[in-house]
Amino acid sequence: MFLKNWLPLWCVLLNPLFLLAADVTHYDIAIYGATPGGIAAARSAAKNGAKVLLIEPTAHIGGLTTSGLSHTDFRTFEGLSGAFLEFSEHVLKYYENKYGKDSMQAKTSRRGTHAEPHVNELVFEKLLTELPTITVLKNATLQSVETTSVGDEKVLKTMLIRREQKNLSIAATVFIDGTYEGDLMALAGIPYHVGREAKSQYGESLAPDKEDKQLQAYNFRMIMTRNPANRVEITQPANYNRDTYEDILTLLEIGKIKQIFDYPSRCVFKAQLPLLPNEKYDINDVSNGLVRLSMPGKNLKWPDGTAKERAAIFQTHLDYHLGLLWFLKQDPKVPEKYRSEVTQWGWCKDEFTDNNHLPWQLYVREARRMKGTYVFTEKDTDAEPGDVRAKFHPQSIACGDYGPNCHGTSHEGPLFGGKHTGEFYKRVSPYQIPYHCLLANKVNNLLVPVAVSSSHVGFCALRLEPIWMSLGQAAGVSAREKVRSGVSLHKLEFSHLQELLHAEKSATIYVSDVPPDHPLFRAVQWLGSKGGLHQLVAGNTKTYGQRGENIEGQYYKAYPLHDFRAEEKIDEKLLTRWLRYLPEMHRIAATAAIAEKKFTTRGEIVQELYKHRQMK
Predict the structure, then answer these.
(1) Predicted confidence (pLDDT) at residue 3 exceeds the cutoff of 90
(2) Residue 64 has pLDDT above 50, yes or no
(3) pLDDT, tens digit, for every residue of 326-341?
(4) Alpha-carbon 54 to chain mean position
């Protein structure tokens, strides 16, 4: 049963499921949802020995990363850091160990960022078992949440989960919602939003004129191959209805569709490039296409839906995907060249082996979004005035380099040949994400890194697995700091959280030439958190969002004008500005040290400033 957020506490306490609960088990940190964001939170939370429980309602961890989304959304490799970078490095090591460092599998993994779903799952499992204080419970569903009040703050006390026909009551010092849907926060009575805000609410150019309940559309991310040795033939699905698909014939006959499988457009199934290891493809919806896999409007009951309602939506999407594929493969009215093409494709024998080689999860691009202490909006991805960089956030705990993008929220015209509305793709420069996006108002011990506090448009920038892993990592660090200090999440010191994240090689600002393994990484990230990297390069409408040279598909070389240039000589004006980031006594000592050592380059200067930032 899904409790609405207006129900009073006594309704929760009188829930018969609570009365049937076993003894309460205590953890330092409890996380519901083993998505990549939830897993990143668990690993960071447990790094100082905290006792962590990670609960997953399904039989498989990893969310969409292990359920078909293998073509990861980011723009530049220079934008990857922290938990996602560590994960991808382990993936690359897996391929190198199994096939060899110079193998095609290692090369097509693109530094470990593009992996087969079963490999992603193996790596996530390994990363969790490395930390002995993490306990993982699968097939455990959340039933209810008990809260109380301490002063003017709400505190989550226990959550009741159901596993193997038994009730388990879990208490924790800190709770983290790692679900795509925000299921934990909703049961805890935290305010949230479903749908699109009006343009006037946050002044967003991409928002609709009027508020509505539309959601970004969902589809499956199927994994397919043309390799006969690993191919499972496409067969007729159980709920096939030919009439649903007949109108696509017109598009095929007039040549509007070039191929059934192609990239990036004039096709039915987007076979994303670059190719995955072992000749596999991540199949996705065709942006702005005439034929879509995404089904806007069919997902409206998902966010607040019961398990039964969600199962029905899942099946509707699956029936449509499989029926369309079967129609194109065998229907005699489909031109032979298309039918012949489809027969070359099939499922992968070694993927989703317990589910007929089909993904376990639907790609839930958007569901609930928390109404938190800070709401991330389109404006947070816009330029800082006169700067090439995006808006400066001194409380940043993560960053992203992929602009707001939405596959559509409604549909006009016929199913085939019509048009999704509410679709947008905006080019921006890398942006920062502030800490308070993770926090609910006046809630002492809950962090929400996935159904993060944001507008519809803002969420369309944040809804990517590398970003969710960065936000999850920040949630894990914050949770363990609360456990250590006893301080409310709202009162943790931002600069200390940033230092801890930088120590874990997680960036809070994009710097193209100082990667996480660079000796200056922590110093340059500290400088960026003070504002020292903003206004280094003047920006305008031409330079803002300017990308580097295209590598392949959606991937580019580093964003220009976002480098630090450590070897460049510093001018007096910039040195004076950077010195102001230190307290007065520290500034005097740093100035003397710089003069004595005759430091003149940006790299030398920032390293010296970093040493003096906390001088006793």
Answers:
(1) no
(2) yes
(3) 999 999 999 999 999 9
(4) 18
| C-alpha–C-alpha distance, residues 512 and 515, integer Å | 7
* For range 306-324, the mean pLDDT: 98
* CA–CA gap between residue 185 and residue 285 (Å, rounded): 30
pLDDT value, residue 381: 98
Higher pLDDT, 7 or 235: 235
**Residues in contact with 511: Cβ distance below 8 Å, sequence separation at least 6, in sequence order:** 78, 524, 525, 528, 533, 562, 563, 564
Residue 13 has pLDDT above 70, yes or no: no
What is the rounded CA–CA span in Å between residue 296 and residue 302? 12
Please choose, from the candidates 381, 377, 387, 379, the residue with its C-alpha nearest in 3D space to the C-alpha of residue 541: 387
Tokens 């306990």: give the residue: 135
What confidence tens digit (pLDDT) does each residue in 77-114 have?
999 999 999 999 999 999 999 999 999 999 999 999 99
Determine the straight-line distance between the first and last CA of the chain, rounded to whole angstroms: 55
User: Would you place residue 614 in the very low, low, confident or very high pLDDT band (cuts 50, 70, 90)?
Assistant: confident
Residue type present at position 106: A
Residue 23 confidence (pLDDT): 82
Sign, CA torsion 263/269/275/279: negative
Are 332 and 213 within 8 A, CB to CB?
A: no
Please name the residues in contact with 109: beta carbons below 8 A apart, sequence gap of 6 or more. Answer: 91, 92, 95, 115, 276, 277
CB 331 within 8 A of CB 325: no
Among 563, 515, 554, smallest CA distance to 536 is for 563
Q: Are strands 52-55 and 24-32 parallel, antiparallel or unpaired?
A: parallel
Antiparallel, parallel or unpaired: β 166-177 and 446-447: parallel
411 CB-near residues (< 8 Å, 6+ apart)? 292, 296, 297, 418, 419, 420, 421
Contact partners, residue 529, CB within 8 Å, separation at least 6: 394, 396, 495, 498, 508, 509
* 390 bridge partner residues: 383
- What is the DSSP annotation of 464-488? SHHHHHHHHHHHHHHHHHHHHH---
DSSP 140-198: -EEEEEEEEEETTEEEEEEEEEEETTEEEEEEEEEEEE--SS-HHHHHTT--EE-SB--
- Extract the tokens encoding 593: 């040290």
| Dist. CA 161–CA 11, nearest whole Å | 17
Average pLDDT over every residue of 250-279: 97
What integer pLDDT is reported at residue 22 of this predicted model?
A: 58
Alpha-carbon distance 556 to 562, whole Å? 14
Please indicate whether residue 116 or residue 616 has the higher confidence score (pLDDT).
Answer: 116
